[in-house]
Structures are given as structure tokens and as C-alpha cells.
Amino acid sequence: MIIYALATGAIERGSVYLGQFPGFGGKLLFAACTGSVFMAGAKILDCIKYEKAERLARADAQSPPPPTMAETGREAA
User: Fold this and answer.
1) Residues with Cβ < 8 Å from 41, sequence gap 6 or more?
2) Residue range 12-69, pLDDT digits in tens
3) How far apart are alpha carbons 47 and 69 in whole angstroms?
4) Phi, psi of 76, deg, nearest 5
5) Looking at residue 2, what is its pLDDT?
6) How far apart are the C-alpha atoms of 33 and 6, rounded to whole Å?
7) What does the buried/exposed string (b/e) look like for 26-40 if buried means 16 or more CB atoms within 10 Å of the residue's CB?
8) For 41, what's the count of Cα atoms within 13 Å in the CB-facing half-sphere?
9) What pLDDT is stored for residue 35 in this prediction?
10) Closest listed residue to residue 11, CA positions, set 74, 70, 29
């Protein structure tokens, strides 16, 4: 939903640029507006990935390690 809102705002701003700067300059600024949405979306998705990895690392640090064969009394096969 956040990416959609960013895209809507970027298109609106790009449309204003097309009106203010007709020709190639306006089209270039319009493309820059839409390109910024791709960069922001990628950053948001990266943050989600890193937060998930951090949560998993924190959960692994809190759980005790599995018992070794010496602790269970079993011999290696």
C-alpha cells in the first residue's frame, strides 16, 4: 500500500513537470519521479528482509543448542 501511494504521488508530480517543462526535460523529470518509486520500493523490501533475518537470529540466540551425542549417552553409528 505504501508503494502504491508513492507511485501515485510520483505520477502526479511527474505530470506537473510535464506541464512546466514541455519536451525532453519534462519527460526526463517524469522518468526520474517514476524511477524513485522503484528505488524506494526496493529499499522497503530490503528492510523487510533484514528485519526478518534479525528476528530469526534473535530467536536462535535465545533458544538452547541441541544436545550433543555425549549429552544423550548415544554412541556414533
Assistant:
1) 3, 6
2) 999 999 999 999 999 999 999 999 999 998 898 888 888 888 888 888 777 766 666 6
3) 39
4) -70, 140
5) 84
6) 10
7) beebbeebeebbeee
8) 14
9) 92
10) 29
Enter the C-alpha cell of residue 16.
506537473
Residue 41 C-alpha cell reads as: 520500493
> Is 21 in contact with 9 (CB distance < 8 Å)?
no
Strand (E) or helix (H) holding 31: helix 24-62
What span, in angstroms and rounded, lies between the C-alpha atoms of 30 and 25? Answer: 9
The one-letter amino acid code at 64 reads P
Q: Nearest to residue 4, comparing CAs of 41, 42, 47?
A: 41
Distance separating alpha carbons of residues 30 and 13, to the nearest angstrom: 8
